[in-house]
Amino acid sequence: MEIGFIGTGHVGTGLIGKFAQLGHSVKISNSRGVQSLTALSSETGATPVSLSDAVREVEVVVIAIPLSAMSMLPKRLFADVPDDVTIIETSNYFSYRDRRVPEIDAGKVEAVWVSEQLGRPTVKTFTNIIAHHIADAGLPKGAPGRIALAVSSNDEKAKRTASVLVDEAGFDPFDAGSLEDSWRQQPGSPAYCTDLTIQELSAALARAERANLPGNRDEFLRRYFENTSISAKQIVELGRAVFK
Ligand SMILES: NC(=O)c1ccc[n+]([C@@H]2O[C@H](COP(=O)([O-])OP(=O)(O)OC[C@H]3O[C@@H](n4cnc5c(N)ncnc54)[C@H](OP(=O)(O)O)[C@@H]3O)[C@@H](O)[C@H]2O)c1
């Protein structure tokens, strides 16, 4: 596939390396421009481009940037992008870190807000796993203990395309329903960064209680910041303890 990336941080880098290695044709962009992407390009074979070129002549766009940066992307970025291009976004909202979004603070589902900012249907996935594990915890299909990732969208074809990429990245894709239902995979939910198998993820999404998410998320952050050098394994254990 032809895949364009916007965002080459922790999440973007892990996926860019995998997709390039799998033989996909990968273009990469960030906020600082092509000169800043030389090293990543040498490591992965991906092609550094401008933001506007990252969404041109591709089948899939992956947007892996802070949620609040979505509204700072050029307003007409997707104006000439055909409707059948799948737009995957990986964002999670943390108000301590992101610019405050009053609509989300008031209860709007994060992925719905993102889709509105972009003016396009989107797929929310690669969000309920820490970036470190996107890069190194993937397993072949059928392997015991393979981690499952929630895939949410209102566009069934885009959801299928995204699910192929989730599988190729080493994870079981799980159809988590619509964007409106995607609060079930947001921070504070039992599905969030707890490294579950597909059966466990299905049960975790079903038992999520929306009213508990903000309190769970805040408790997770309080305990997260108590520890100055928390490992990826400890983050997953903390999530499992807090996001019941
Ligand atoms: N880290 C995790 O464990 C994790 C896991 C799942 C999902 N997520 C979510 O995935 C998203 C990305 O997370 P991350 O950890 O990869 O973030 P990150 O390491 O901070 O990287 C952010 C990337 O976004 C780019 N960016 C920021 N504003 C931009 C703009 N206006 N236009 C173009 N590019 C822009 C940055 O470009 P420059 O470097 O040039 O500034 C950088 O490449 C976030 O929404 C996060 O919540 C994170």
Separation of termini?
38 Å
Low-pLDDT segments, ≥5 res = none
**Largest beta-sheet characterization:** 8 strands, mixed
Give the SSE order as H and E letters: EHEHEHEEHHEHEHEHHH
What topology, given as strand order, has the largest sheet? 3-2-1-4-5-6-7-8
Mean pLDDT: 97
The radius of gyration computed from the alpha-carbon positions, rounded to a whole number of angstroms, is 17 Å
Unique ligands: NADP nicotinamide-adenine-dinucleotide phosphate
* Apparent shape: globular
SSE-based structural type: alpha/beta
Number of β-strand runs: 8
Give the DSSP E fraction (strand runs of 2 or more residues): 5-15%
> How helical, in percent, are the residues?
25-40%
- Count of helix runs: 10
Task: Walk me through the structure.
There is one protein chain. This protein is an alpha/beta fold. Helix content is 37%, strand content 13%. It is built from 10 helices and 8 strands. It has helices at residues 10-21, 38-44, 51-54, 102-105, 110-118, 131-136, 156-168, 198-207, 213-226, 232-242, and strands at residues 2-6, 25-29, 47-48, 60-63, 86-89, 123-124, 148-153, 172-175. An 8-stranded mixed sheet has the order 3-2-1-4-5-6-7-8, with helices on both faces. Helix 9 (213-226) packs antiparallel against helix 10. The protein starts with a strand and ends with a helix. 43% of the residues are buried. The model has no long low-confidence stretch (mean pLDDT 97). NADP nicotinamide-adenine-dinucleotide phosphate binds next to helix 1.
